[in-house]
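Hello,

Our lab assistant flagged a job as stuck in the queue for most of the afternoon. It eventually completed. Since we weren't sure the result was trustworthy after the delay, we are filing this so someone can double-check. Below is the sequence as submitted and the structure that was eventually returned. Let us know if re-running is recommended.
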Amino acid sequence: MNSSIRFKLFLMMVLEFFIWGAWLPLIFGYLPGLGFSPGEQSLILNAFPIAAIVGMFFSNQFADRNFAGEKFLAFSHLIGGLAILGCGFVKTFWPFFGLMLVHCLLYVPTISITNAIAFANMKDPQKEFGVVRMGGTIGWILAAWPFTFILVDWAKVDAAKPDGVVAWVGAVLANGLTGQPLLDATKWTFVVAGLASLLLAAFSLTLPHTPPKPAVEGESLALVSALKLLTHPFVLVLWLVTFVDSFVHNCYFNWAGTFLGSSQVGIAGNWIMPVMSIGQIAEILTMLVLGMVLKNFGWRTTMVLGVLGHAVRFGVWAFMPHAQGLIIFIQVMHGICYAFFFATVYIFVDEHFPKDIRSSAQGLFNLMILGIGALVANSICPWLIQNVYTVDKVTNFKGLFLVPLICAAAAAVALIAFFHPPKKAVPTVGRGTAPAH
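-- returned structure --
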């Protein structure tokens, strides 16, 4: 693959995840500010996992088999971009929900389509894909930083009368919005996401042509065989732990913005997203050492460390909510948790599952990671924060964070006690035994 194509694929990934990273972190605090009930918030937040579940069984294969990848990407980001852009200008539930649902139904399939475009245009995917896919993590990080100059209290900046560019930048960075003005300005996250989506729609037309894939014989049987793998106890345990870890992971996204911007922690509105992006920076660094960690500690220990990382972070949040510096630093656990558990699960499936059903097995775990785990978290978390742990408009964060902390600890115990994978590859139930790796 020449450097020009590699750069285009890298930039495609940057824009793809910039879109998601722009609107997701602050939406959880924005929806209550619009007066939406916990049930309405859950419906809006669940548009994404519902789209992920639908995409797992329908839209991804439909798109793969009927459209050129770059054209589907352009169409999806054009319509989806206009939809998420519209979310910045509507204040009532049904229009907001409808626009978010349209965006998610079109956006979620593009996650796999971008991967398909990348793989179709690589000569050596094992060597090249990691660098290209890193563009997605960088895109998520880049989405956070423009808001340090958007979510700003400009009245305070003007009142400070900064002298010179350096003093002006310092005044901007030091005067982030809080309270209702921050909620009002959060609409710009949707506007930025929409503009990035429209930019990717145009850019997609410059990508290499990627024709639709023909249907693969036995593909539906591969999904059935992947489901049958759950009859192996250690596979079932890992699948259920993946659900718990996804739930805990999405509890973080539901509550992080509200917690970081609360009076207890006191992070200004324009710094909330950059602070959250520390996790993605840590993810890049952790991925670089993941191979060494797996070699030295093995599958189970690495996964246990990833799950327990959530417990450590929520423990700090629950018991030391006023330690702002430590709370900012502990964001590194987000990247460690992702790499040591989710990324490790993907690698484990690739190593241990039979080649002919490997893709369907990955989809089976993605069903938990992007779909069911997020669906449950997005259904429960708005209700928890507004109806159980909020008294007289003061949030009892300690009680709130003990929920994911206990769940993560229980999942780690389950891995230690019941996750005992064989040294050989998993045999496919009813289809013979796969060769050992």
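-- support follow-up --
The delay was a queue issue, not a problem with the job. The result is valid. The longest strand covers residues 390-391. The chain has two domains: 1-151+186-215, 218-437.
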